[in-house]
Amino acid sequence: MTRPSKCLRSVVLGVGSYLPQRRVTNAELATMVDTSDDWIVQRTGIKERYLAGEGETTSVLATRAAQKAMAFAGRTAADIDLVIVATSTPDYTFPSTATMVQAALGITQGVAFDLQAVCSGFVFAVATADKFLTSGSHKCALVIGAETFSRILDWNDRTTCVLFGDGAGAMVLEAQEGEGTIADRGVLTSHLRSDGRHREKLFVDGGPSTTGTIGHLRMSGREVFRHAVGMTTDVMVDAFAATGTTAEDLDWFVPHQANERIIDASAEKLGISPEKIVKTVSLHGNTSAASIPLALSVAAHDGRIKAGDLVMIEAMGGGFTWGSALIRW
Ligand code: ACO
Question: Do both 54 and 141 map to the same domain?
Fold first, then answer.
């Protein structure tokens, strides 16, 4: 007998992450552009980031993060039938980074595709995997956020180049039967939004069908800041409403790691206690789609996030895109 879809949940079995070899402090950046450790820390909370070197492509970072997540989950290539890579910095225009990762991991069944929602990419990918798994069409998903933003930064523009870093994080999700209550382990709800009218506030000024180049990231930082807190808290309120939970019920808040001031303001607006916030922005900078799985991996492996914990993830990024997912670990 087929299981009713309302009882299938996408349960997190493991997470893993991988960073490039080269760590770059604010002090080192200050030798490259006119900036200072003080300015960067005060405005963003970022102290250091990792930058990919030769051979450290997005698919290489993604594959290494995936191997760690699969080992932690106790799942092999034979188990995975869905690979989604959230990235805005693919190795090539095509094929997708996901199919390259699929091949590198020796996965020969199922489907693999990229998903592009900039910094919201990982939340969008978790929500997408959840639809596949809870429909019963697929059984075990590898969801990855991986970026090499250093390749699309304008290293002469101090207003953007100090903010970003490279890295990858991965999560293994498996369809398992639940009771259909919020006590179930797994993704309990997800809420995605986008509004293309905000394009010019955060974009890359090149691409295959316009300039024929990869282009550089351009951002009106103040404009992004102005919208970020309202948008991310809106979708978290949607998640609370859909599940009948409140900020008090959360064990962990794992936001997109763009800027410490945005993170703190969002938490404060919703009454989320500071000790429940997982912050890795000081260590990694803004790694776009990789930032949430990197943070989840740090907090799961250091013992903070444990089975049964209620975890809120949220992000906002270029487009604009924004979204949240509430997960019982
Ligand atoms: N070092 C030193 N000075 C700098 C730097 C730098 N790296 N960058 C800008 N400045 C200067 C500016 O030139 C300006 O100088 P001026 O007053 O003489 O003209 C001054 O600092 C203030 O610049 P602002 O841009 O107004 O600084 P602000 O306080 O707004 O901080 C920041 C800038 C950090 C970018 C902020 O707007 C921000 O965090 N915005 C959100 C950006 C973000 O998080 N984006 C990512 C979200 S979406 C995604 O993740 C892709």
Answer: yes
User: Which residues, at least 6 apart from 207, have a Cβ–Cβ distance to it below 8 Å?
Assistant: 213, 214, 215
Whether 256 is catalytic: yes
Domain check: are 228 and 314 in the same one?
yes
Read off the pLDDT of residues 128-161 as tens digits, 9 standing for 90 and up: 999 999 999 999 999 999 999 999 999 999 999 9
Question: Is residue 1 included in any domain, yes or no?
Answer: no
- What is the model's pTM? 0.96
Q: Which of 46, 162, 224, 263 to mutate to test the pocket of ligand 1 (most atoms within 8 A of CB)?
A: 224
Both 97 and 173 in a single domain? yes
Domain of 21 in residue numbering reads as: 7-178
If asked whether residues 167 and 36 sit together in one domain, one would say: yes
Q: Ligand 1 centroid to 221 CA: how many Å?
A: 6
Name the domain count of the chain. 2
- Which atom of ligand 1 lies at the shortest distance from residue 261's CA? 39
CA end-to-end span of the chain, whole Å? 28
- Residue-wise pLDDT for 54-83, tens only, equals 999 999 999 999 999 999 999 999 999 999
Grouping H, G, I as helix, E, B as strand and the rest as coil, residue 133 is: helix
The alpha carbon of residue 180 and the mean position of all alpha carbons in its chain are separated, in whole angstroms, by 26
As a whole number of angstroms, the distance between CA 237 and CA 80 comes to: 33
Structural contact between residues 142 and 76, judged by C-beta atoms closer than 8 angstroms = no
- Take residue 2 and report the two structure tokens written for it: 């087929």
Whether residues 101 and 129 fall in one domain: yes
Q: For residues 69 and 170, is the Cβ–Cβ distance under 8 A?
A: yes
**Same domain membership, residue 68 and residue 135:** yes
Cβ atoms < 10 Å from Cβ of 123? 29
> What is the domain-level CATH number for residue 155?
3.40.47.10
Among the options 191, 198, 256, 284, which is catalytic? 256
d(CA 312, CA 180): 18
* 138 tagged catalytic: no
Query: Could you tell me the pLDDT band of residue 3, with boundaries at 50, 70 and 90?
Result: very low
- Please check whether residues 146 and 260 belong to one and the same domain: no
